[in-house]
Amino acid sequence: MSVLDLARPEIRALQPYSSARMEASGGQLLLNANESAWEPTGDGGTGCNRYPEPQPAAMVDALTRLYGVRREQLLVSRGSDEAIDLLVRAFCRAGRDAVLIQPPTFGMYAVCARIQDAGVIEAPLRRDFTLDVDATLAAVTGAVKLVFVCTPNNPAGSVVPHADIERLVQALAGHALLVVDEAYVEFADEGSVADLLDRYDNLAVLRTLSKAWALAGARVGCLLAHPDVVALLRRIIPPYPLPLPSVNAALLALSGWGQANARAHIDIVRAERIRMRTALARLPGVRAVLPSQANFLTVRFDDAGAVYRQLFDAGIVVRDVRRYPGLDDALRITVGTPAENEQVLATLAYPATARGAASLKSPAMDGRGFAEGSAT
User: Fold this and answer.
1) Where do the Aminotransferase class I/classII large domain residues begin and end (predicted)?
2) CATH number of the domain to which 179 belongs
3) Is position 135 within any domain?
4) How far is CA 16 from CA 57, 232, 236, 246, in A?
5) Confidence of residue 217 (pLDDT cuts 50, 70, 90)
6) What whole-number distance in Å separates Cα of residue 376 and Cα of residue 98?
7) pLDDT score for 113
8) What is the largest CA-CA distance in the chain?
9) Going edge to edge, which strands form the sheet with 203-208?
10) pLDDT reading at 200 higher than 90
């Protein structure tokens, strides 16, 4: 059985849009795409008057080297979010198929499914936020085409051992595509499961440059998968997913200097994560600090709402995760620079003093009482 047998037949048969860049490349006088012949004011020679490559060759090459895969196993996308949406649209028929998730987990899996009118089946994580392989497999129905696993998990920070991933992908063969979201894997002790791609055609891995590579604003991510899955998604991805400034930012981040800089920051985050977990656990009002292999810590408080307001009054915005199952007393705190982390600790330990010393400007609040832009 081919992994494509799981996909929607109408997508397999779809004649994709053929852009000017897809049909012809090279040349000196470009008159095939109805672009402006003039660069925009202040462009500085970046060539933004021209459409970018659909899958920029230099960036694809850099990412394949980084992730240890072949070109035909990689699809560049606008962050992981676009890849999630493409997978749901390609594999789930509206009103008939479903995805399987393990809450609490990243919310976009369910959002993309519901936009597609696909079902959402839940197999909750254990009380300690580890994945229950048996419960996950028991929840799989004939309608399930995609099983999403987030490791390290957002918002809990727990990891799924490689052996569990391999057990899942083996059991799902012929039934569903296992999608492993590794947005935070650079911060974890265990590495990627991308080394399994050559052995299992029903495995897909999501990667992003938003977190460890400091490019959240550039929106650069990718899907690693069997070449047939990549080719299928290329049928439905927009013709020019990444703008030139994002491509250029990614190439700089993936250069030798950029990688050395990113890895130095990853080391700082990992060290600060240990320090912050120890310090937070000692503070009054803290019930527990969940173990985390990501770049954040999820903390249980006696009164999480009061702590959220206390931090906000000091100009510090953290993520309120109380709406997630099993986390009704918790806040998620990103590990920042040592100075930023110290300000968090000082605010929690000495709220009045820290409020008076805070130099950060309080961000605007939306109508729900959450800080604007805090949706990731």
Assistant:
1) 46-347
2) 3.40.640.10
3) yes
4) 20, 10, 7, 24
5) very high
6) 24
7) 97
8) 68
9) 74-77, 221-225, 203-208, 177-181, 144-150, 98-101, 119-122
10) yes
Give 63's Cβ-side CA count (13 Å radius). 26
| C-alpha pair distances (Å), 174 with each of 62, 73, 96, 178 | 32, 20, 18, 11
**Closest-CA residue to 75 (of 238, 200, 211):** 238
Q: At what angle do helices 79-91 and 108-115 cross, to 10 degrees?
A: 40
Q: What total of structural domains would you count in the chain?
A: 2
Q: Where among 254, 289, 308 does a domain terminate?
A: 254
| End residue of a domain, out of 254, 278, 302 | 254
**What is the Cα–Cα distance from 68 to 64, expressed in whole angstroms?**
6
How far is residue 300's CA from residue 332's CA, in Å, rounded to a whole number? 9
CA dihedral 20, 21, 27, 32 (to 10 degrees): 20
Residue 115: both structure tokens together: 């936009």
Which has the minimum average pLDDT: 142-151, 152-161, 310-319, 343-352? 343-352
